[in-house]
Amino acid sequence: MEFISLVASSFSLLFDPLILAYVISGFIIGTIFAAIPGLTATLALALLLPLTYTLDVTTALMACASIYMAGMCGGSITATTINIPGAPSSMMTALDGYPLQQQGKGALALGHAAIGSMIGGALGALLLIAVAPFVAEASLLVKTTGKFSLLAFAIVVIIVAQRGKMIKAAMAACIGLMLATVGLDAMQPVTRFTFGLSDLTAGLDLMPVIIGTFAISEILIQTSSSTDAKKAAEAFSKVAIKRRDFIPPLSAIREIGVVCYVKSSLIGYFVGTLPGAGGSMGSFLAYAETVRTSSEPETFGKGNPKGIAASESANNAVCGGALVPMLTFGIPGDPITAIMLGVLVINGIQPGPQLMSGQAELIAPMLAALLFSALVLIPLTLFLLGPYFIKIVAIRKDILYGAIALLAVVGTYVATYSFFQMMMALMMGILAYYLRKHEFPIITLLLGFILGPNLEEFLRRSLALSNGNPMTFFTNLDSLFFILLTLMFVYFLAIRKPLKSPITKKK
């Protein structure tokens, strides 16, 4: 209770104009970086890290918190408007956000994304404030075998969620897993599948793969489209977008339901507490669970607001969850919290079990800024800047996608400082283009690539600890729990309900 009171009193710091300016500026910068393909909130925080040296630790951490929250919700802007997620955590948002955009309901889709982000971010922050020490202990119960089963669960669920295309989804996931094996072996100092190219020693970087599979492939898809881009832009420019269009009607929010928002937020939060899981897995699992429990699963992937709400609630709740292992054990939950850990260490703050009690006055303002960003800055930013966000699609496609191609290529280089990785982004874009043309869901490819390294590492460690006995996955309770959960999802998604209307990304 003492820590909760300290967080509540920290809101008074936001009345300081200078601190408030840093928090708002951080949020806007994080939103812009998250929305532009190739530029992520992680990159924004990394570029602004030197600035934190000139600030006091409280102001620096509050600004970092606002960038973090903005980075999770900002990716939904381009995911909805042009089908190119600005951040990996918004990939599932694009499945239903872009179809709504094509139906002329882009403003409504962004409104649902903002409400989901607001609820998920706020619940994640509140849970972090209230139960951080307890959740940290619970997450430590998931050991090596359990982590493997959890990752396998995520891959299997997203495959079986592609109704009618499970074979193609499984093949795409296998391609992603294969690409993840390129480079140094996870357990031994030997290279694999580099074909003598020294540039592949470190493997494929995540940024080129994301930019290639979404940004480059989308540009190629749009280029090969027969639609008249100029006429489409002119038609949209005549549509009057008002700020109230971004506010979903109460009936639509009720239809989504409190259960969907809360359940998705809880999934995102608890996934976030697992180091390395990140917003992508949180949104994957929340989306799959929403499809599983829906009475109309065939509507997902065609513009169902529930899909947007589930994805955005989960990935923003991850913010609160990922800070739990970082603050209590010094284990970053994702790349952004790794940078925030650096800010703490630079300022002489040592994360650990005693942090919440010994230096709580330094941490409490950061959590207050996280909650403030979710409750106030997310809806306020959309209300003020929403009409400008939605106008992205009014830009002529040749100009828009030319600029995106340039930003994507430059963003890849800035993220990796490698010409080779920049070329790999182009190659991944061509591969994803042909996969999408043949209706392969590239979501499963990307999930396989993201989770592949950890999946292999935890599998080999588990077998090494058990002397090669695979029964270890059934004798450890944490692993057995996720195996049973996987079987339950397979039953409800692939066996009990008819296989029709695939949940796939539109071409």
Q: How do the helices and strands follow one another from N- to C-terminus?
A: HHHHHHHHEEHHHHHHHHHHHHHH
What is the number of domains? Answer: 1
- How many helices does DSSP assign? 22
Assign an overall shape. Answer: globular
| Proportion in β-strands | under 5%
Q: Could you describe the 3D structure shown?
A:
The chain is mainly α. It has one domain (1-497). 73% of the residues lie in helices and 1% in strands. The protein has 22 helices and two strands. It has a two-stranded antiparallel ribbon. The longest helix has 34 residues, at 106-139. It is globular and about 55 Å long.
Short key terms for the protein model shown above:
507 residues; mainly alpha; two-stranded antiparallel ribbon; 1% strand
